Amino acid sequence: MKILVINAGSSSLKYQLYNMTDETVLASGRVERIGMDSSIVTHEPADKPEVRHVSEILDHTTAVKRVIDMLTDAEHGVLHNMNEIDAVGHRIVHGGETFKDSVVVNQEVKLEIKRLFDLAPLHNPAHMMGINAVEANLPNVPQVVVFDTAFHQTMPRTSYLYPIPTVLYNRHKVRRYGFHGTSHKYVSSQASAFLGQPLEQLKMVSCHIGNGASCTAILDGKSFDTSMGMTPLEGLMMGTRSGDLDPAIVPYVMNKEELTLNEVNSMLNKHSGMLAVSGLSSDMREVEQAMNEGDSRAKLAFDMYVYRLRKYIGAYAAGMNGIDVLLFTAGVGENSSTLRRAVCEGLTFLGIELDEERNSVRSKETRYISADSSKVKVLVVPTNEELLIARDTYELVQRKQNS
Ligand SMILES: Nc1ncnc2c1ncn2[C@@H]1O[C@H](COP(=O)(O)OP(=O)(O)O)[C@@H](O)[C@H]1O
Ligand SMILES: CC(=O)OP(=O)(O)O
Ligand SMILES: [Mg+2]
Description:
Layout: E1 2-8, E2 13-19, E3 24-32, E4 39-45, E5 51-55, H1 60-71, E6 87-92, E7 103-104, H2 107-115, H3 124-137, E8 143-147, H4 157-160, H5 166-172, H6 181-195, E9 204-209, E10 213-219, E11 222-226, H7 249-257, H8 261-270, H9 273-278, H10 284-292, H11 296-319, E12 325-329, H12 330-335, H13 337-345, H14 356-359, E13 367-368, E14 377-380, H15 385-402
Parallel strand pairs: 1-6, 6-8, 9-12, 12-14
Antiparallel strand pairs: 1-2, 2-3, 3-4, 4-5, 7-8, 9-10, 10-11, 13-14
Helix pairs in contact: 1-3, 10-11, 11-13
The chain binds adenosine-5'-diphosphate, acetylphosphate (UVW) and magnesium ion.
The site of magnesium ion has 2 residues, from loops.
């Protein structure tokens, strides 16, 4: 079975084509700047050179058509024709309280995702465009949706409720949902397999540190608490997002600076975090480089980023009354030994001991970075959200075919 995995954003669409017989990636790529004057298509077949071209792609339907054309292209393609695509799996950021697991797309599922637009205005409308675009291009192919929020649906009320009037939860479903669930689920199960210990017996803190960043406490193999909230803005300091702040700052700044709701939202989501504090970049590589060259704002941004992450790890260790495993994943977590060292240096009170040599290894494999004598096992676990989406899609489509 061949499965196409799609992660549709408002102006981009990323894809990976899997052969599920051996879970190999046949091709991957992305369409960027959809709806803008010059869209960029990058297509990377597994055994052929990368192709990149610029053209005008006005909407997601055209983008999906272009992806299919690339996958079936005589020269750069990996399929003879589009009928070889057996199913499509989508990443959906917000599943609200409705979706506790991945599901096969039908009219009802689409309506529910639409109802959730309000809770994730930046993400869900774009995902819906992706689903509709696939429907238009591959009308008889089953589609499955995999939610970032699903893994966190096990959180207890003490973790997911906010201390505000209950009517806001009852009427508007204002609560913590949490995100990056597909990644936290994948890396925690990889870690348990690596350690040869059942997930249910490990108290874990999983740090997904990419452009968006979140930290999850995993207890009894389930999400117990997580740093992102009703939206992916709460929690850790991120590339361009503020993370936690005093909520009173919002009306105060709106008043002083005469900002609209959209403007303040954009300020906190797109113009804050590492970018704002460093005054330089949201990209950790650039911030680290500037810091090493003596830039004091970059150093402050890095130190704040580390401090805020360390506080969450400590809070979750307290929340679970212990921690057995600390793991790092995603762009920064997998690649920045400097960040990992800085975080762990302040956590020796928990029994965390880093092994400097192990920490400096660069690899795509799950690995220890703690010393053998460390009470807490510290791991780097490369994430693979797309693979988990492909697996869920495969399983649900097979189940449907057999029923
Ligand atoms: N070698 C590296 N050292 C430090 N940071 C890195 C390195 N490689 C990638 N990153 C950082 O990873 C982040 C992107 O992570 P990623 O998980 O790809 O993000 P997202 O999926 O949220 O866009 C960027 O801040 C980038 O600078
Ligand atoms: C939910 C979220 O923050 O996703 P990303 O890290 O892809 O921005
Ligand atoms: Mg990501």
